[in-house]
Design goal:
Length: 100
């Protein structure tokens, strides 16, 4: 009985989590942001979403890139048995070069 409770608690913690990855380049951030809330990926993310071309929107480069799977993204993935696994991507443009 005790092991069932422990396994249940671990499963709740593991299944209830969302993930977020942020990469900072060290460049100062600008006001311009590219925000794609529903990037389409498939089969547990093995088929990745299309690349975001930030060169025209961010002529000074990129300050940070954040990708996450929100609760709604995870819910849609769970409903489709992870065949369709959307993710959220947010790119913050840089206002200048990386400070040395």
């Amino acid at each position: 009985m005790r092991t069932t409770r422990i396994v249940s608690m671990v499963a709740l913690v593991m299944l209830g989590a969302c993930y977020r990855v942020t990469v900072n380049t060290g460049a100062p951030p600008a006001v311009t942001v590219i925000d794609k809330e529903w990037q389409h990926s498939f089969v547990y993310g093995l088929v990745p979403p299309p690349a975001i071309d930030a060169k025209q929107t961010c002529p000074q480069g990129v300050a940070s890139i954040m990708t996450e799977r929100s609760f709604l993204n995870g819910l849609v993935g769970a409903i489709t048995s992870s065949i369709f696994t959307p993710m959220h991507a947010k790119i913050t443009c840089a206002s200048g070069p990386v400070a040395k």
